[in-house]
Amino acid sequence: MTKLEDSGILACLPTPKSPEPWISTPDITRKLNDQGCEVRHVKTVQRRLENLASIGVVDCQERGKALLWQRKEGANGFAAKAAGLMTFDEALALQILKRFASRQIPTLVTEVLDGLFGVAQARLEKSTVPEGMRYASWQRKVTAVDGAFQLQSPTIPDDIFPAVSRSLFLEQLLEIEYHSRSAPGKIVKPQTVMPLGLVEVGGNLVYLVARSVINGEAKPNQAMYRLDRMHAAKVLPDPFSYPSDFELWSYVEKERRFDYFPAEEAKVVLRFLDGTQHALLETPLSRDQTIENHSDGSMTVTGHIVLSQRFKWWLRAYGPYVEVIEPQALRAEFAEEAKLAYQLYDSAVA
């Protein structure tokens, strides 16, 4: 006969997705005995279940005079064991991880961590001691705000992200139906891709970096696929070897692919009018940024950066309060835009 353990009790419990999602204490006791676990009293199992409920890994409901139980989705013996050992520091760390990095965690890993996330939440919420209450209140005191104007995030279909994440994690090919921006209503054929990485941009767009696979051969160049434009995604049984010549960090940081149409690095000289330059004093434009202050309160900023559409979008936000001095091609481009803007508003006033 084996010793009664919380992990054994949890193994006997159904989940909300089970055909019979609830089970009574006597039925759990019988299952435990059938599996070779020595349980002499139903009340012993009852006390264990009540303890598991207090730490947030099982749910309970009354049906007449009987108590029925179920295991929370994702909770397992590991989570139950952790509940008694988890410090408030660890519980808070897990909650912050779930809150700020949930999209970066592969679906397969979150399935394992769900139980720990639940235990961590219950550990903080159910605490009655001052120390635990301070940790619980910390979550309400921190958040993150994107620096740009916040647009409404496009909806990613519920089945898309798990399939993409699983394919990337398992290193298996992925079949997708992708509708590009240029032809959103066009009927598309499924295409096979080799997933290489997931990138979240601006807090509201998620891209899959992948190589197209045609006739079993992966193309050498990467492409970016927005997850909200995928109408279907299916993990294929075909495995692939992750390419040694690709590094996601380099693709994002060095090649600047998410800066949109990056060009060469160039020396940029900008003159900001008084009152608009404070951001660059605390968050430099580049590592080699230099500043020259002028008597009229304006400021000239010089630095080397990669010219891209993202940089131009940022620059346009300053409107008439910044002057592009160098490079000359960029100055001419902004001068032409200023003329077009003047014509647009001048005709509207007239």
Automatic annotation (TrEMBL):
Pfam families per the UniProt record, alphabetical: WCX (PF25583), WYL (PF13280)
The WCX domain, residue ranges: 267-339
Species classification: Bacteria, Pseudomonadati, Pseudomonadota, Betaproteobacteria, Burkholderiales
Source organism of the structure: Pandoraea thiooxydans
Domain of life: Bacteria
Domain WYL stretches: 160-235
InterPro entries: CBASS_pafABC_assoc_protein, WCX_dom, WYL_dom
The protein, known as: Uncharacterized protein
